[in-house]
Write a structure and sequence with these properties.
mainly alpha, Serine Threonine Protein Phosphatase 5, Tetratricopeptide repeat
Amino acid sequence: MHHSMTKKQVAAALVVVLAAMAGCSKDESPEQLIAQARQYESKGDSKAAIIQLKNALQARPDDAAARLALGRLYLKTGDHVSAEKELRRAIDLGSKRADVLPMLAKSLLLLNKPQAVLDETASAPADATLLSLRGDAFLALQKLDESRQAFDSALKLEPNNSNALNGLARHALLKNDIAGALRLADSAVSHNPTDVEALMFRADIDKAMGKLDAARVTYDKVLQANPETGAAYLQKAYLDIEQKKFDAARDSIAAFKKAAPGNLLAYHAQAQLEFTQGQYKEALASIQNLLKAAPDHMPSQLLAGATQFTLGSLPQAEQHLKRYIESDPGNIYARKMLASVYVGLNQPQDALVQLKTSLDTSTDTALLNIAGRAYLNLKQYDNAIATFERAIGLKPADAQLHVGLGLTKMSKGDSAGAIKAMRKGLELSAPTAVDAGIVLGMTHLQLRQYPEALAVLNQMVQRVPNSALLHNLKGGALLGLNDRAAARTAFEKSMQLEPSYFTAVSNLARMDIADKKLDAARQRYQAFVDKKTGSAEAMLALADLAIAENKQADATKWLEKAHAAEPKLAGPALRLTQQYLALGEKRKALTLISAMQVADPENPTLLDMLGKAHAANGNKTAALDAYGRLAIVTPRTSGITARLAAAYEELGERDLAADVLRKAHTERPDDVAIKLARIAVEVRRGNHEQAIMFAREVQSRPASKLPGLIVEAEVREAQQKPDLAIPLYQRALQESKGSSPLRIKLANAYRQAGRPDEALRLVQQWRSERPKDHAIGVYLGELYVSQKKYPAAIDTFTALLKELPGNGIILNNLALAYQSAGDARALATAEQALKALPQSGAVMDTLGWMLVDKGDLARGLPLLKKASAAEPGAADIRYHLAAAHARNNDKAAARKELETLLAAKSDVAQAEQARALLKQL
């Protein structure tokens, strides 16, 4: 945009231009420019002096004296890189090496090049200044004896040399001799009261000891001695930041920039100020400016790591902190932060590696808290509890530690101990703090202790009445108490406080869905999308709603919109890929997931989906390659290993699956999940005795005895030896304190063993003992159907529906019982079941087969096709589909389904039915 200048602005500009022209007059000789530089320096204007020296060197670039003067000024103003360059040039041009060497050595030392200092000064004549600089270099290289000798030699030549005295003071500090260090530093100042470096060192000691006011006084003395000492302004800025005198800090940083223009440490101070004020994005920009020019500045690497960690950019924080620790491996602060990063990245083992050297003896409760969280993530609950309790012993009033202990006890299954610890954490928290209360409230919710949850959350709402999160959690507690009106009010309050808080919207929509108000739920989600354009989570919810209503086209539309709104997020892309695969749009699925994986090549979830997409497209080699890369990029966890093995099995590579698990087992012989996965693979390979051996290994450990018993029983069933499975299930039932799934497994074993009456007797007994156990009730009804006791089955399912009205599974079972009993209510009940579970293959099969049986092929056959697509491995559904094709006189389609069924080696009864029908075609 063009702006015209006022007369006053034009005049001012001319003054500047004319002044610049006068400064660059061709009439001025290099000697005059050098003389002007000396005058500027004497007045304390080093910047102007540097400009004049540069002008002189433009006219006479080989002037050794000007180079030397420029190098000295660069050293003075903190531009050490330029200082080294100009001082070396001065020597090359003929300046006396003995005059230049002290300045060159100092610039090298400040550039962290101690070995270069020693090399340059190795053959120099004995001189107190050079000897003290050599002492500093030896000290930087941790050669303490050589360092002390150099300082002692300097003091022999010059007893009051401030650099040598301060060097010996640093030796004393290394030995924790604070008194000796102070005595030496005070001696350096008393004998050299205007020596800037002596004063700076004395102030630095006070600063390190926390005597900030004393340090400030000494930094001011430095500036009285030399107002251009940028380092003093810099240190004052750090003092101001530490004491939260932010305006003063800004002034100190400005003064530092003026005294040392171009010094990169201004960026560090600025970043430190911004970080302390909570301006993290600004702090990151400032520190990145420094690191672009000086990537080896380790304090900036540490500050960058802390900033990225605070911003939640954990991988970036990891890189900065790792680089810092390489240079300072003993820095506990950096290691604690890196350990916290690893906990956040769900790499708890790496977190413990960072803490291992000090964990056993540390009294640092922050360190112990991080270690406790790492143990918790590793599910090493005893270690986590011991670590949190140790920390609490050191700092019993730390609320966070009690909450951590409570979470660990909850994970271990000690709910009473968890609640006790969390309540203690809440008691110890500040009167306005709510974190401990939120965790306690959520724990009560998880335990379905709704009155207790509501009491805690009401207390927290009194502390922070405008928290959308608290009102949302309160709504959850009220919903658990079945106070639906009050729950709605709480969720609506949460929405009102934070309109962009999707969780509250979602909870209200779920209530709408439960009330059969699907349109209200849809409108609620749509309103959120309209208000917050690009809300992928709301679009995904709309997709879920469309899927529930069997509106696949609408579901796909919303998934595509969610992906378009957040094209870089893996979640929407994965959902859309799954949808494409479910609809048979295999190429679309592969194209989408391939593009996502290229953009994020080490994302394990994307690699897993890429393998599935390749497999669906028949690209077996590419699928195996994707899973191979998944094995490389993922941490070696039980879940990933088992998933890889399952993927290889899906591709028909059972030996490869077994090999993956065998290697994992060798590396982690005590990993129960790996052993269980190996058992499953060996069973599928027919190696039952090997599977039993692994199952007994699992049983031998008290913590995994229960899954070991269950899996051995399942192997016995796979061997067609249900009589041997029965006692194993009985023992497992004792271990589990009566779990419903195990009761059902035991009953099934009795049935497989040809003892159906015993199975029925047991289940009837369990039903009378546990009348509210709906799983047992459903199973009892199924048993009645299997034994052709249809009136009893109908009574059982009808009673269950009174407790669980509209339950699709129960409606489906009741429809089957009606059908078997010849009851005309079967078809209407099956229709109800499909409305409740529109995506269920089993329910579609029930209604579809009933319709086919009644001659309604037009409606029944498409339903059976959908059922088979939804559950392609279900032999009974495939048989019904084949029979429907046969009734429709489509013998080719019927034959194809039957051949597929027989190739899959279904159970004997199903196979006999299939063969019989095949003969008729």
